[in-house]
Amino acid sequence: xxxxxxxxxxxxxxxxxxxxxxxxxxxxxxxxxxxxxxxxxxxxxxxxxxxxxxxxxxxxxxxxxxxxxxxxxxxxxx
Length: 78
Prior knowledge:
The protein has 78 residues and is mainly alpha-helical. The protein has one domain (1-78): lambda repressor-like DNA-binding domains (434 Repressor (Amino-terminal Domain), Orthogonal Bundle). The protein contains five helices and no strands. Helix 1 crosses helix 3 (32-41) and helix 2 crosses helix 3. The longest helix is centred in the N-terminal third of the chain and has 14 residues, at 3-16. It is elongated, with a radius of gyration of 16 Å.
């Protein structure tokens, strides 16, 4: 998932929770133009993600790639 896809997912979650993109940005303390630019460029600070996640009652988690799925993608398992 790239940076634009990640932001798109968060905005979609905001819509599910009844928040427009502008309201989500405001609740996160981010100017709506900043959020729009981040969405179009894929460039933003990690604090932007943290703020959006806080508003959406979500958290960021890092996980390793699944070794089995990596093997399947490479064709090493079959």
